[in-house]
Amino acid sequence: MIQPPKYPGNYSARKQKRWSQGSRNSQSSGQIRTDAVHSRLQPNHIFPAQLYSTESGRLFHAGKVLICLVGLPARGKTRLSVSLTRYLRWLGVKTHTFHVSDYRRAKYANFEDDIPDDYFRAEPTSEEGVRMRQSILQDCLDDMLGFFEKDKGQVAVYDALNVLKKDRELVQELFSKNHIKVLFIESIVDDPSVINRNVQNAAASPDYEGWDPAKARKDYLKRINANAPIYQPMNEDGDESHLRYIKFINFGERLITNNSQYGYLVNRIVFFLMNSRIKTGCVYFARCGKSDLDKYVDDEVLNEEGLQFSETLANKLLDTIAKRKKGSPVPVSLNASSGSSTDTLEKHAFRQPPTADGTNDDSFVVWTATRKRTSATADPFRRRGITVRERYQLNQLNPGEIADLTLEEVKQRFPDEWAQDQDDPYHHRYPRAESFHDLAVRMEPLLLEMERMSGDMLIIAHESALAVLYGYLMACSCYEIPSLQFPRDELVEISYSPYENHARRININD
Amino acid sequence: MPVYTVSHVQNIRICVIMVGLPARGKSFISQKIVRYLSWLSIKAKCFNVGNYRRQAASHPTADFFDSQNEDGLKIREEAATAAVNDMMKWFNSEDGVVAILDATNTTRQRRDWLLRLCRENSIEPMFLESWCNDEKIIMKNIVDVKTTSPDYEGLDPDTAASDFMKRIDKYQEIYEPLTIEQDGDLTFVKLINVSDQVIINRIETYLESRIVYYVMNLHIRPRCIYLSRHGESMYNLEGKIGGDADLSERGFKYAQKLPELVKQAAGDQVDNLTVWTSTLIRTQQTAQFLQQDKLQWKALDELDAGACDGLTYEEIEKQFPQDFKERDENKYEYRYRGGESYRDVVIRLEPIIMELERQENILIITHQAVLRCIYAYFMNVPQEESPWMSIPLHTLIKLEPRAYQTIVQRIKADIPAVSTYKEKGTSQLGESHASGNSSKNLITGAPIDKKDG
After folding, report:
1. Polar residues: which segments have biased composition (chain B) (predicted)?
2. A76: left (phi over 0), alpha (psi -120 to 50) or beta
3. Which domains does chain A have, with CATH numbers?
4. Using a CB-CB distance cutoff of 8 angstroms, which residues of chain A are in contact with residue B338?
5. A151 belongs to the catalytic site
6. What is the ipTM of this complex?
7. B-chain residues within 8 Å CB-CB of A252?
């Protein structure tokens, strides 16, 4: 029986070692899994990369923050709120997204029949529309306040239109009164191709299940058009400069922050926003090939079987990407950046083609750990001219004094440590070893580089490193991460969508 | 192939072009960026146009900077050209990655010229403007400049200040700040009153985003950082490296004395201080008598010696003669079998450095190699030297970062301890006085104050 902890967060994880057997679930090949970024946080939830926390379970230097999104429909507010939530949760900030559309769907399952058209306008024109809109927004606001008060939440993300000044005023007043700081993030898009892509995405949302795509698009455009004329961009008249806000323009092309002096969270969020890209590619995870003795300390090279494995892996992966892209307008290219050069006399008038990794939708990059056999597993990709980067942060969990011991030997020589590890495998550290938590903190700088990559990437690393990255992308709790399994013969594909990520396991020998 | 800590560095050359009136903290920001990137092994250098101009005009008055003063204008343009030429040479002959052009660059004409030069040489320009109309911040910078600028050497501070303000006015007359309307196509960052408002435009690479994030975390509030190794450990007594040993009797005495040393060094700030330790027993035992808040960081653990952990240098020389030699030849890059190199330690310390920039008073109790890396960051010690610095036991180091330099102070506990310093080419510990190696004295010798540019 697991005792509920006295205090939430890593603080108590360290003080009161605990572990739930029930949360160890294994997965079978082929099954698609949805990430847990929308799951309700348990009071004792522990975050993978939380550096430290206080007895309240909050980061002591951040305070309570409401992130209030602002923007017309099809400006990627949902995608933004979800990816921010995933990142902040990972960093150890108790965060939850509140999508007003989820509240509406919960109350009125079928919007076509149950809701008047003008409900979707920030300022409905009919009496019924006003009543419905107010009651749905009120439910959402009440839940957010409850999240701060009862669930010890630290950051709530409010995913609603908030295109009217008076709506923002109300939010600012309500939350300030409760000693919660408000940070507005306004998403502005004036690039028609981006809007178009977002409308396509929206037409595939739960609202339009079973609809004809063209009809769905048309209906969604109605929601945009109802709000565009009444939209009041933030601080347009200069009377909102007292508010703390970030303008996020064309998905990171431009960012303007206002009133953001040295806030830890705000800086983090800006750093995230600078790197957050719309993903068209997938992230693939693979293990390295085998070596003769399989010893940690020796840093061995691949053996014959390992070499064979690396070939099989490369073929399967390239085949998988080609199949996925079949019929998509994005061609398969094997370069890290695939920018074409602008060869003209007036060179200075043009930007250089981007030379950084992963800047294009059709880019492909391989990352490996720096250990010999892991790096060598990527050789078939190198031979094909594909960019391979060695990353020190991807190295496996340092096993310390239990390196190269069998399970039986560990139990025998470190009985107390073994028992503690059973209690809390995420935070427990064998003598001189790293815990999963240490590993997560070490890998944190890689996450934003991953966020920046628009195209495909493959990560070849040890099971422990893959578990941590998978944990980030799939919003796993740290109860789960130590028991995640990545068999050698499976390739894991993680695909992005605005509302959630999906993971699929592919057998490389099929 | 070198392993960069930031992968996107390959094939990228960035020129950070500073923009802003005098006394807007441009040099401070420039030097911080260079230090941060160099520490991460990203080749960076600052080119300060003022230094070039001083060769022709060393103590100019405000009139020199008048846009109507043709002689002045000519000298200033020549200085800018010389700086840019040197910068281009540096990019090409030394494989530079990030150059900072530290000058006012206040006119659009000047910026267009730089833009064209950069683009023609496949260098991405990133403009970084510090715009400020907060009198308090400006006055603080003016005080800094008038007391440290070589332009006003030997001049009465009040005369210097009034001349300097006149100079600012001269620039103000022709200043064209960056605007979204006119410069929207450029990669630029505009800091308004330090960070009241920040505009970040067209950041195209991870490296650029990292520079922006770093700049946003900088602050200029006064504070101090205190560094100490753990007290002498049982392993130190036996000459062994690594391990997770307890403190020796003398080490324990140091732990007992540490609160007093900290009080002596920190004065009235003593309660306004947070203690960071590693997760190893010896640093925690060293911190045990301190009453301040404490935080443990795995990232502060000692360099992992892998297969050599728990051995003495003599044993390493016997058991791994090849490794022993290789490590002496390139101590920064050498990675112990199954362990870490100095470069690996720097990578894992990066989040600590970012957090340190944000924080105020911090006392770090950690280990020899880790301390060398942290010290190297604050004091701009090059990679070839930092692994060879001598950092004695039972000594508290106080670092006081100022706008243009870091002031170092050492407070000895006066409790004897063994020396854990190993010179190149020997397995014996201790410092030979005859050695000509100057770098080892960076901490034991006179405090250095390095200034770039």
Report:
1. 426-442
2. left
3. 61-275 (3.40.50.300), 283-342+353-507 (3.40.50.1240)
4. 296-299, 403
5. no
6. 0.81
7. 203
